[in-house]
Amino acid sequence: MNQALTGLKLALADAREQVAPETDELIDQYQASSLAFEKDEFVYQVRDREFRVPLYTTSLSHSKIPKIARPGFSDPGDQYRWMRKENFAGQFPYTAGVFPLKRADEDPTRMFAGEGGPGDTNRRFKLLSSAYPAKRLSTAFDSVTLYGFDPDRRPDIYGKIGTSGVSICTLEDVKVLYDGFDLCAPNTSVSMTINGPAPMMLAMFLNTAIHQQMDKFEKDHGRKPDEKEAAKIRTFALSSVRGTVQADILKEDQGQNTCIFSIEFALKMMGDIQQYFIDHQVKNFYSVSISGYHIAEAGANPITQLALTLANGFTYVEYYLSRGMDIDEFAPSLSFFFSNGMDPEYTVIGRVARRIWAVAMRYKYKGNDKSQKLKYHIQTSGRSLHAQDIQFNDIRTTLQALCAIYDNCNSLHTNAFDEAITTPSAESVRRALAIQLIINREWGLAKNENPLQGSFIVDELTNLVEEAVLVEFERITERGGVLGAMETGYQRGKIQEESMYYEHLKHSGKLPLIGINTFEDPDADYADLANHLELSRATEAQKDVQLERLDAFKATHQNEREIALKRLQETALCGGNMFAELMETVKVCSLGTITGALYEVGGKYRRNM
Questions:
Q1: What percent of the chain is modeled with pLDDT above 90?
Q2: What average pLDDT does the segment 156-164 reach?
Q3: pLDDT at position 443, please?
Q4: Which of 377, 392, 485, 596: disulfide with 411, CB 3.0–4.6 Å?
């Protein structure tokens, strides 16, 4: 008996030696984290700020509802497996979320606006944000701005000024656009949906933030700051400003079509922006929003959207590394943007994205915890909005928003029901915002912050989507990586095939769409509705005001413009940091003149056929 017991002990000791230290650490971490979430309050830090958040809410039935539901595993093997694949939010691999808990002082709501001139959109921003202490502004630009043009009386430009977005062409416009919002306040965040001309618009925005602080100093002290004080103000403004600029040129080639410069030149400018952010400690503003939304809107299914977007993200990582940047200096400045539609895979799009990114950042790129955290914005699907039975659109948007909130997205925009037809009205935007407010503040299950963890179907979907994304990575790799695949039009072809498949199912009725191909209103007269629907368009007066503002700006800076443009071109030709120079150029040059000057040295975009 003693001999058998000794043998068993030796076998047990030998088995223990085979267990990696990391395994024991994970099991200990599981037990410690489980105890931490059992307490009444959770304490954690973000950007050196300490947060204390209650871990329970009380329902009307006086039930104690946990914010984090803990798994009840007692077997160490189950604990270890769960920690490797799931873990608590805020811990690697961040499947459940990149922060332990949601912010209690700020809803993830984005206030999206863009119409007419800068003054018109400024008023809409103030309307949308009036009930919120946090100002989370999201800016839509008109097509004239998106293609880098100035407003003009040319017929092909004049009709588009201020329509389906705001017209912005000068630094003075940006100052008016965000007037009344402290861009350096910790509760202000600005997102700008612009890509080709993103470097110019970003330079205007950062200059506006600096200008606000200079004005504030002058009002407080009754004088202008001296050189040393001005430098300190600039440093403060750049380190404090919060937000995102889209600036994702790869997805523009693949899905949206607002490329204006050659891909190589556009990538160079993106790298210059990131280098400028590193040099000037711009750490609260994301230098790019790597976007799958437009890929999905062009027709891609959710798996393709996620795979192409993550592949684009890793391409930017490789490019920035090739320029000598440190992974931990730039990876935290990358953000992502996805669409949420009606397909089942959208339920886990955030979970899969966070896990793939975290694993790659830790094991391939040796990034730190901040680099491993993928943060993303969700916008509900525009493609799921229909002009027929338009009132049903809010139902679809509500379901998509619920998925995003359950999946712990970092910010969320809910589309207005009338966006299927026109720029949304103030009333429809208010309804869209109410969708988020009702989910976040009234919906009972949303009081819990990990409702997806432990679900059999969610686990199954997570594994399925993750495997499918990794398989798509292999297909892209076989074609020479993202840039190699773009040369043969692989991504565009794939998106088009999936779009055709969706349209075929929709028109054949095999994909039921309520109010569209089934449960249709027999009494609806859509032709009559179209004839009486008022479309939102910029007025001639709004367009003319923009033209007058542009003329006045050009007249004020006519003696400085050519010198500034020449200096910018020389910087580009010598391989210098174009964004650092743009920070000066935008003070005296309009968007269109800068675009024209850069075309001469960087080339225009041409699609590979």
A1: 82
A2: 93
A3: 97
A4: 377
Over residues 551-566, the mean pLDDT reads 97
> pLDDT over 70 for what percent of the chain?
98
Is pLDDT above 80 for 162?
yes
Distance CA 89, CA 408 (A): 9
Whether 607 has a pLDDT exceeding 80, the answer reads no
Confidence of residue 1 (pLDDT cuts 50, 70, 90): low
Q: Cα(106)–Cα(132) distance, rounded to whole angstroms?
A: 8
pLDDT-derived band at 526 (thresholds 50, 70, 90) equals confident
Separation between Cα atoms, residue 276 and residue 389, nearest integer Å: 49
What is the rounded CA–CA span in Å between residue 254 and residue 257? 8
What is the helix (H) or strand (E) element at residue 380, kind and residue range?
Answer: strand 376-380
- Cis before 332? omega within 30: no
How many angstroms separate the CA atoms of 262 and 398, rounded?
A: 39
Distance, CA of 172 to CA of 228 (rounded, Å): 25
Paired with 604 in beta bridges are 261
For residues 31 and 75, give the distance between their C-alpha atoms in angstroms, rounded to a whole number.
Answer: 11
Dihedral sign for Cα atoms in the order 371, 374, 377, 383: positive
**pLDDT for 560-576, tens place per residue?**
999 999 999 999 999 99
With beta carbons less than 8 A apart as the criterion, state whether 251 and 293 touch: no
Helix (H, G, I), strand (E, B) or coil at 400: helix
- In the 8-state DSSP scheme, what is residue 19? S
> How many other β-carbons are positioned within 10 Å of the β-carbon of residue 599?
16
C-alpha 188/C-alpha 242 separation (Å) is 7
SS3 category, 342: coil
pTM over 0.90: yes
Q: How large is the C-alpha radius of gyration of the chain? A: 26
Listed range (42-51, 60-69, 317-326) with the worst mean pLDDT: 42-51
All structural domains of the chain: 26-85 (no CATH), 111-489 (3.20.20.240)
Which residues have a Cβ under 8 Å from the Cβ of 468 and sit 6 or more positions away? 303, 307
Element (H, E) at 49: strand 49-54
Pairing of strands 41-46, 49-54: antiparallel
What's the CA gap between 122 and 57, in Å, rounded? 37
135-140, strands of its sheet edge to edge: 111-113, 135-140, 188-193, 243-245, 285-286
**What residue has token string 């890793």?**
314
The residues near 608 (Cβ < 8 Å, ≥ 6 apart) are: 486, 487, 488, 489
What single-letter DSSP state applies at residue 414?
A: P
Tokens at 331, concatenated = 């990876």
